Amino acid sequence: MVNVGSLDRALRFIFGAALFAAAFLPPLAGWVAPLGAWKYALTAWGAVMLLTATFRVCPAYTLLGIRTCPAERR
Questions:
Q1: Cα-only R_g, the chain
Q2: Residue-by-residue pLDDT tens, the chain, 74 positions
Q3: Dist. CA 35–CA 26, nearest whole Å
Q4: What three-state secondary structure class fits 28?
Q5: What is the value of pTM for the model shown?
Q6: Alpha carbon distances (Å) from 10 to 28, 56, 73
């Protein structure tokens, strides 16, 4: 059921961590503070990216039939 490949997983982890941390780290918090309520959306998007990187399953990829990982050989 895995549909997120290694490169995709690494990029999701990097961008997810950056988006999630942007609301909490002082240097980045100043950048997202003017966004108002959108900062919560960015934080949630970062959390979703971290979760999909951790579990290697993307529900959107499942719905669209996309796989970025190599096919399993049996």
A1: 15
A2: 899 999 999 999 999 999 998 888 887 778 887 888 888 899 999 999 999 999 999 999 999 999 999 876 55
A3: 15
A4: helix
A5: 0.85
A6: 21, 10, 23
The DSSP-derived string for 35-74 is GTTHHHHHHHHHHHHHHHHHH---HHHHHHT---SPPPP-
Q: What is the DSSP letter of 27?
A: H
**Amino acid symbol at 16:** G
Report how far residue 18's alpha carbon sits from residue 36's, in angstroms, rounded to the nearest whole number: 18
Give the number of other CB atoms < 10 A from CB of residue 33: 11
Which tokens belong to 72?
A: 């399993």
Side chain identity, residue 51: L
